[in-house]
Amino acid sequence: MQGQVGTVAVTIHRIPKKEYCGVVVLSRQADGSWAGKCSKCGGDFQMDRDARFEGQVRAMRN
Ligand SMILES: [Zn+2]
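Above: the input record for the complex with zinc ion. Below: its predicted structure, written as tokens.
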């Protein structure tokens, strides 16, 4: 099923000017947003519901 709580997605933490920081593992929250931490700097990540991002997640799983 799509959109389950606990679904995990991977993204990249990009910093303006430095560009690449580390890998972020995001997990889906009950409200449909995503949350996780950067593996390198430990920064907290939050992402709102984003149909384009979710399309990419689905593409990765297919
Ligand atoms: Zn980072």
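Notes for the reader.
The chain has one domain: 8-61.
The two ends are 13 Å apart (CA to CA).
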